[in-house]
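To illustrate the input format used throughout this study, we show a single complete record. The first block contains the structure-token representation of the backbone; no residue identities are included at this stage. The design step must infer an amino acid for every position from geometry alone.
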């Protein structure tokens, strides 16, 4: 039991030494990972087990909705949504196609800006914690001089811990953001190429 509690106690002490700034950093870190996992699972599902352009042609010619139980890729989802809404009016179908493109692009962009913003704000929060910690240290020095080493150490610890924590949140966050943007751009390219292919048959 002691071996289990020791790391948790060390984490608690680390968190406590960072002061009040550690709370928004902790919330930010949790949200960052939750949104990343959400987008990663979605993008992976949209990248795997997709239909070919030849199958897209067969679907649009015969007005057949792709089997989404068999195919999970973004092309299959895009074609299925379009065919369910297709009409006999060619002009209207082109508008529906543009609307479907915008719908899928918007769904791919969801949370990406939020992830990028959090990854960039985290080190600024860490810097804010550094400033607060240094102010605390200077206040101790102004009141007690350099004789109260324990109080000075608390302020310096707060400054360093928040800086470190901000970077620990920001660095993986930036990697996550760049990775998701690359995956999103790849999927958007598939949507655009599929939409251009469908226009030939409507």
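Output of the design step:
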């Amino acid at each position: 039991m002691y071996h289990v509690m020791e790391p948790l106690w060390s984490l608690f002490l680390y968190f406590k030494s960072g002061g009040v700034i550690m709370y928004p950093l902790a919330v930010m870190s949790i949200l960052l990972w939750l949104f990343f996992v959400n987008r990663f699972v979605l993008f992976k599902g949209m990248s795997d087990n997709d239909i070919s352009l030849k199958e897209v042609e067969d679907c649009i010619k015969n007005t057949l909705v792709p089997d989404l139980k068999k195919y999970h890729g973004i092309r299959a989802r895009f074609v299925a949504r379009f065919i369910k809404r297709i009409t006999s009016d060619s002009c209207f179908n082109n508008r529906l196609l543009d609307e479907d493109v915008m719908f899928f692009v918007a769904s791919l962009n969801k949370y990406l800006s939020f992830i990028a913003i959090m990854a960039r704000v985290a080190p600024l929060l860490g810097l804010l914690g550094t400033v607060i910690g240094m102010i605390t240290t200077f206040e101790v020095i102004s009141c007690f001089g350099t004789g109260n080493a324990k109080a000075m150490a608390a302020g310096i610890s707060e400054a360093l811990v928040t800086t470190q924590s901000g970077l620990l949140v920001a660095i993986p966050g930036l990697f996550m953001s760049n990775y998701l943007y690359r995956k999103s751009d790849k999927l958007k390219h598939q949507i655009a190429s599929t939409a251009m292919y469908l226009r030939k048959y409507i």
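Structural context for interpreting the output: The mean pLDDT is 86. The chain has seven helices and no strands.
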